[in-house]
Design goal:
Number of domains of chain A: 2
Largest sheet of chain A: 6 strands, mixed
CATH architecture of the largest domain in chain A: 3-Layer(aba) Sandwich
Number of domains of chain B: 1
Order of helices and strands of chain B: HHHHHHHHHHH
CATH class of the largest domain in chain A: Alpha Beta
Helix content of chain B: over 70%
Strand content of chain B: under 5%
Helix content of chain A: 25-40%
Number of helices of chain A: 11
CATH topology of the largest domain in chain A: Rossmann fold
Strand order of the largest sheet of chain A: 6-7-8-3-9-10
CATH superfamily of the largest domain in chain A: P-loop containing nucleotide triphosphate hydrolases
Structural class of chain B: mainly alpha
Low-confidence stretches of chain A: none
Oligomer: heterodimer
Mean pLDDT of chain B: 91
């Protein structure tokens, strides 16, 4: 078996007759047994990558291999090796949890008896046994996601695709789902996961790819990227843009950290937030610049974007 | 690890035919279970043709005199046709809904037969139409409809109707795959279905229509089916042959031959 679970080379995809460039020569590899976090804002192209790699959509150009098998010519074989839990819990809400899992199992061509046993097993694993005979429309959002994840596992996939598995979930359901994913990884499943949350990618992924406007803008281990993003962001709020620029100029003289001015806010990327914040405050005070606010936080996806592109996500 | 992949990769043509059948059965079952879980939808979609029976039988009926036949016997074959036609619209609505909810996306990533997604839908709707046809038969008998031929002939007419409904549902499959959502699928269907149903011999003789419309109404497939059913159920008009039954079968088979590949093509392009 190939060492690489996924090998993507120069994949491009356009929509709306070429007007919208969803993916622009994207390349990356994922080693078997590892977790790739595909990080990016809405519309960056994450779902398009997942849909191409799960054989739902065809790329315009470029090649992709799953476990060494060519995506275009061996999609039928690949389908047996992968599992997909989509962005929308893609299950039939009129069917019960059990019926949904049996249906997906049967469509994955498990024998009837095996399909039933496997479904019950998965319901148990995802803590849904007591709700197994209720139609899905009575399930909560978290329960649906869990069932959706269970449905993607009926064939014991070697490679699992999770498209924004926790978007819209409450913190507790998110933690439960993270545990489930970590357990799967421990059992040897390779995972490609898309997310808008840096925290999620950091927690689950061995490798993170940041994607924006269909292009890979960063690729590395979480610690590589953290070294680039810093572990904390100091946001110094000042009276106006001029004082922010002035503060930046003064701080630059004695501190080598990356500084970004965004309107009246000066952001400093750091690996030692509280200590650096003190130094920054001393400089601001020494130059008699009026301080309007101060905040030290973990970097968000927005901060990562600001660091990488110099732009906020909305731009 | 290597052996797992080898086991998972074995496949051949015999298997794919077998899986088409098995997957179609699974999807059909799923769609039928879905229908029973929303009994209100099932009830009201059946109530609609019943209302049409009552409307034409008791409101318009006495104003439409037709020589040589009681209007109720003229009407019921037409009602059957209208009912299965209107019923086949649900094929498109159901598919559009599945697309909208992402279920089709999941099916597409599974190693299942793609055609089974569509076959399972059209067959489930065929089964539903069988149920509806039985109900309409009951209502028809209750309002005075009587078979003027034989039970065998009546059942033959019902089979003709069901074949047509199956054929036409492939057309609505394409509508469902084209529409952005289920509401649109529904409003897209009616401009197609209204002229076919009402500019036909279903409720009134085509001879009463203006010339330009009469040409269309005489030869279009719904009229052919209505004429065939009427002949088989109540032997009206008595002096014509059963040729329209053969003609109707050709229309239905022709529609399947054209629409099914188109639907499958459209499905493969829909992502």
């Amino acid at each position: 078996m190939s060492e690489q679970a996924i090998e993507v080379t120069d994949i491009s995809k356009t929509f709306a007759k070429g007007k919208v460039k969803a993916l622009d020569e994207v390349s990356f590899t994922v080693e078997t047994g590892t977790v790739l976090g595909l990080l990016g804002p809405n519309g960056a192209g994450k779902t398009t990558i997942v849909r191409i790699l799960t054989t739902i959509l065809k790329q315009d150009s470029g090649t992709a291999k799953i476990f060494g098998l060519d995506l275009s010519s061996q999609s039928h074989v690949i389908k047996r090796l992968i599992g997909l839990a989509g962005q929308y819990a893609a299950v039939d809400e009129n069917l019960t949890g059990f019926e949904n899992l049996v249906m997906i199992s049967r469509l994955t061509h498990l024998k009837k008896s095996v399909a039933k046993t496997r479904s019950l097993e998965l319901l148990e694993q995802f803590d849904l046994t007591s709700a197994k005979d209720r139609p899905l429309k009575t399930y909560s959002g978290g329960m649906r996601r869990r069932l959706d994840l269970a449905a993607s596992l009926v064939n014991n996939p070697n490679l699992l695709f999770l498209d924004e598995p926790t978007t819209g979930l409450d913190p507790q359901s998110r933690l439960m789902l993270w545990d489930s994913i970590q357990q799967l990884v421990k059992d040897g499943t390779t995972v490609l996961l898309t997310t808008q949350y840096l925290e999620e990618a950091d927690r689950l992924a061995d490798q993170i790819i940041v994607i924006d406007h269909g292009k890979v803008i960063a690729n590395g281990t979480p610690s590589d990227l953290k070294a680039q993003f810093g572990t904390s962001i100091i946001s110094v709020e000042l009276q106006d843009n001029n004082s922010a620029e002035l503060a930046k100029a003064k701080i630059q003289d004695s501190i080598s950290n990356k500084l970004i001015v965004d309107r009246n806010v000066l952001r400093i990327i750091s690996n030692d937030g509280p200590k650096l914040a003190l130094d920054v405050l001393r400089i601001i005070d020494a130059n008699s610049i009026n301080l309007a606010g101060l905040n030290i936080s973990e970097p968000s996806l927005d901060d990562v974007f600001l660091t990488l592109t110099g732009k906020t996500i909305e731009e | 690890m290597t052996t797992i992949i080898e086991q998972k990769t074995q496949s051949n043509i015999m298997k794919s035919v077998k899986w088409l059948a098995a997957d179609t059965l699974t999807i059909t079952k799923r769609n039928l279970i879905s229908y029973t879980r929303i009994p209100q939808a099932l009830f009201f979609s059946t109530l609609q043709p019943v209302m049409f029976v009552l409307l034409f039988r008791y409101v318009f009926g006495s104003a439409i005199p037709i020589k040589g036949v009681q209007y109720v016997n003229y009407l019921i074959p037409g009602i059957f046709v209208q009912t299965v036609l209107f019923g086949s619209v649900s094929t498109g609505i159901g598919l559009a809904e599945d697309l909208q909810k992402g279920i089709i996306e999941r099916f597409k990533a599974l190693p299942m037969s793609k055609m089974a997604v569509l076959m399972g839908r059209t067959i489930a709707d065929l089964v539903r139409n069988i149920l509806v046809v039985i109900i309409i038969s009951g209502v028809g008998f209750a309002v005075g409809f009587r078979i003027q031929t034989s039970v065998v002939s009546f059942v033959a007419a019902l089979l003709l109707l069901l074949l047509f409904s199956f054929a036409i549902s492939w057309g609505f499959t394409i509508v469902g795959l084209t529409a952005p959502n289920s509401e649109t699928a529904q409003v897209m269907s009616f401009p197609l279905i209204f002229p076919l149903t009402f500019a036909s011999s279903a409720f009134v003789p085509v001879a009463t229509m203006p010339t330009w419309l009469r040409e269309f109404a005489t030869y279009q497939p719904v009229s052919v089916l209505v004429d065939a059913s009427r002949k088989l159920m109540v032997n009206f008009p008595a002096n014509v042959s059963n040729w329209s039954s053969v003609e109707s079968i050709f229309w239905s088979l022709g529609a399947v031959v054209v629409l099914l590949p188109l639907a499958v093509y459209k499905f493969s392009k829909t992502a």
